[in-house]
């Protein structure tokens, strides 16, 4: 047993001695530290190329342009000049004056001329078989009476009136050439004439034949109480 213990101790010492002095026994062991230092890899740094400056951003360029002082030399006011009348060249377009209407041109459509006076003796001389009212065997009789329109101003003012109209009744019973004989207010005359032109008569007769009759007089009454 003592022998085995001594052998174990001897082996242990040899192992420890190998660890302690092994780098001296291995070739090149003494210069390991310098070799390891020389084996460290190195990195070569390539110089970066010089890049051209980037153009400014459009928004930055606009800001720089706005910041620059504007040249106001072109905005200087023109020198003052004396006021002189400008000569205007004649225009190629010239409006021609309208000639006056011919004297025989009638009035506008719908207009009513209000004749006054007793025209029964002369009016309707172109009618065939024109007789005076007193010479007839049978006088004209109304068969259709048109009611006149009451003038608005007279109705609002509560004014009554009367218009006496002279006319001719032809052989067909139509009203020809009505005219104003008298009126209580001129405001009623136009409506009276409009109404009488719509009247229809049974024509007067002479010897049993229908004839045209002059000097026929018709009174038209405007009365608010009756609504006429």
Task: Give the SSE layout.
Elements: H1 2-25, H2 32-38, H3 58-67, E1 130-132, E2 141-144, H4 152-156, E3 161-169, E4 175-183, H5 189-196, E5 200-202, E6 205-206, E7 209-210, E8 212-222
Parallel strand pairs: 1-8
Antiparallel strand pairs: 2-5, 3-4, 3-8, 6-7
Organism: Termitidicoccus mucosus
Keywords: Cell inner membrane, Cell membrane, Membrane, Protein transport, Transmembrane, Transmembrane helix, Transport
Family: Belongs to the TonB family.
Quickly list its features:
single chain; 228 residues; alpha+beta; TolA/TonB C-terminal domain; four-stranded mixed sheet; two-stranded antiparallel ribbon; 5 helices; 8 strands; rod-shaped
Overview of the structural elements:
One of its GO terms (biological process) is transmembrane transport. It is a single-pass membrane protein. Keywords: Cell inner membrane, Cell membrane, Membrane, Protein transport, Transmembrane, Transmembrane helix, Transport. The structure is a single chain. By secondary structure, the protein is of the alpha+beta class. The N and C termini lie far apart (169 Å). A four-stranded mixed sheet has the order 1-8-3-4, with helices on one face. A hairpin with a 2-residue loop joins strand 6 and strand 7. The protein has a domain of 93 residues: TolA/TonB C-terminal domain. The protein has five helices and eight strands; from the N terminus they run H-H-H-E-E-H-E-E-H-E-E-E-E.
């Amino acid at each position: 047993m003592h022998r085995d213990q001594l052998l174990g101790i001897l082996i242990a010492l040899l192992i420890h001695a190998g660890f302690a002095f092994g780098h001296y026994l291995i070739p090149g062991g003494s210069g390991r530290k310098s070799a390891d230092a020389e084996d460290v890899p190195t990195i070569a740094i390539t110089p970066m190329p010089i890049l051209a400056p980037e153009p400014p951003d459009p928004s930055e360029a606009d800001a720089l342009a706005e910041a620059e002082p504007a040249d106001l030399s072109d905005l200087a006011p023109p020198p003052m000049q004396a006021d002189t009348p400008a000569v205007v060249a004649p225009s190629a377009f010239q409006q021609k004056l309208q000639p006056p209407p011919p004297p025989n041109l009638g009035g506008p459509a719908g207009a009513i001329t209000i004749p006054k006076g007793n025209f029964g003796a002369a009016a309707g001389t172109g009618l065939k078989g024109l007789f005076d009212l007193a010479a007839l065997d049978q006088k004209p009789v109304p068969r259709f009476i048109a009611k006149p329109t009451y003038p608005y101003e007279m109705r609002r003012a509560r004014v009554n009136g009367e218009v006496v109209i002279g006319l001719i009744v032809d052989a067909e019973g139509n009203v020809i050439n009505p005219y104003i004989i008298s009126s209580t207010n001129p405001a009623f005359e136009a409506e009276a004439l409009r109404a009488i032109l719509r009247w229809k008569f049974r024509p007067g007769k002479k010897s049993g034949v229908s004839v045209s009759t002059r000097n026929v007089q018709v009174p038209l009454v405007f009365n608010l109480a009756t609504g006429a």
